[in-house]
Amino acid sequence: MRDSVQSQLGTAILKDEPCFLESLVISSNTAPTQGQSRPLTEAEVIGNIFFYVMAGFDTTSTTLSFMFLLLALHPSCQSLLQQQLDEVLGSKPASEWDADNDLPQLLDGYIGAIISETLRLYHPVAWYARKTVRQTSVTDYEGTSHTIPANTLIMIDVAAMGRHPRQWPSTNPRIGQNQDSPALDFNPSRWLKSEGQEDRGEKSASPFSSGHRMCPGKKFAEVEMCAIVARIFSQFSLRLVPDDVIIEQARSGGHDSRWVEQRMKEQGADALFKGLGFGHGIYPKSHTPFEIVPRSDVGNIV
Which of 89, 104, 134, 266 is the most exposed place for a label (fewest CB within 10 A)? Predict the structure, then answer.
């Protein structure tokens, strides 16, 4: 890692707007002038970069876990995703995918919408902490202004922001007994921007926060998730699998495959509502069986 950092220093210094990591590297190589604070040491730069990478590992993997469960629960969304992959990537092997041309199209299209909708419903970080440096005013969703004193610690409830019914009305039908499961509101298309339409809701959901204190790993996480989703769904689909309880209920009750499919969806929606763990953020805790199958086999329930 140290050699890689040093090798990029010359290029980073020449940039007008270096990225977060490049700014760290530059700061370690700049001598302080009178009145300035000391630059970061090499150990501090390496430590910050290591934390930057590791901090994005757990949050990204958790988001992908929720994303896969949601896509297994909503096969129609998988079809739209694969349609975009076919349009952008065609039959090119992964080794020929172009990050400069293909990636922006995917992130501006349905894959980007899936990422945003997953983060809206199941953000891996439940809240942000911010502290006011001066007295400031904010306006709530009803238009009422509130004055916040300086040095006030503010807890921003990301989960509530992403599920407020006035900002995010339900668009999907409810399934069985799981009327309150957020998984049933999964609708990536709400993030697709039409011609003449304003922003797709980033300010209302704010999954990576915003402003100078926004998540520095935003682009890194988006690229990573986009690559993984594209690699899997270009060739495969996800399919819910009935567990032993559902199979036994179907046999003893003489139920057909449509009943089995309905029960699997109810089970999945329930796991994404009642079966969540909570720490600093949320994570899927209940087991929901699904399998990866070739795209042509997705409709065949075992």
Answer: 134
The residue among 282, 286, 284, 290 whose CA lies nearest residue 265 is 290
- Letter string b/e over residues 4-30, b meaning 16 or more CB atoms within 10 A of that residue's CB: ebeeeeeebeeeeebeebbebbbbbbe
Note the pLDDT tens digit of each residue in 34-75.
556 666 777 777 777 777 777 677 788 889 999 999 999 999
Given a cut of 80, whether residue 173 has pLDDT beyond it is no
Q: Which amino acid is at 28?
A: S
Average pLDDT, the chain: 81
**Cα gap 251→256, rounded to integer Å:** 9
pTM for the full predicted model: 0.79
Identify which of 162, 114, 110 has the alpha carbon closest to the alpha carbon of residue 282: 162
Structure tokens at 32: 């302080």
Residue count of the chain, please give it.
302
CA angle at residue 13 from 11 to 17, to 5 degrees? 100
- Provide the 3-class DSSP secondary structure of residue 151: coil
pLDDT band at 164 (very low <50, low <70, confident <90, very high): confident
Cβ distance 281 to 302 under 8 Å?
no
Question: What is the C-alpha separation between 118 and 175, in angstroms, rounded?
Answer: 19
- Residue 227 pLDDT level (bands cut at 50, 70, 90): very high
Strands (E), 186-279: 236-240, 276-278
Q: Residue 162 and residue 167: Cα distance in Å, rounded?
A: 8
CA atoms within 13 A on the CB side of 66: 30
Task: Give the C-alpha separation, 95 to 90, whole Å.
Answer: 13
The Cα 194–Cα 200 span in angstroms is 9
271 has pLDDT over 60: yes
**Separation CA 229–CA 68 (nearest Å):** 9
